[in-house]
Design goal:
Layout (H helix, E strand, L loop, with lengths): L20 H38 L4 E3 H8 L3 H10 L13 E3 H9 L8
Antiparallel strand pairs: 1-2
Amino acid sequence: MNQLVGTNQQITTPYVCGLNDKTVSVINYLLLALRVSVKNIVREAVEEALDERASDIMDDDRTLTARELCERWNISPNTLRNWEIDGKIAPLPLKGRKKIYSMKDVLAAEAEGYIKNIA
């Protein structure tokens, strides 16, 4: 049976749809190169995401404004206010109208699974 799909499959019969040995070899080489490229792209994306997460953890003393937090979580300011009322996140106590949030609290909320749509 001749298959072109799958993780490690190759064209095994030399005359698939009238293809000669050289063409089959080229196709197999291209499939292998594509697999390697996709693996590298995925690996780089995962490493980048892990690096960002690690830097967040290292920056526990960092703070975020309400706008930055809304952007991070891809939510509206009204949703953020509702989550404050629900106790999912609390701003640091400050005088004035500006709200800031500690990175430690943000990461804790994310770890608790409250936030499902992190940007």
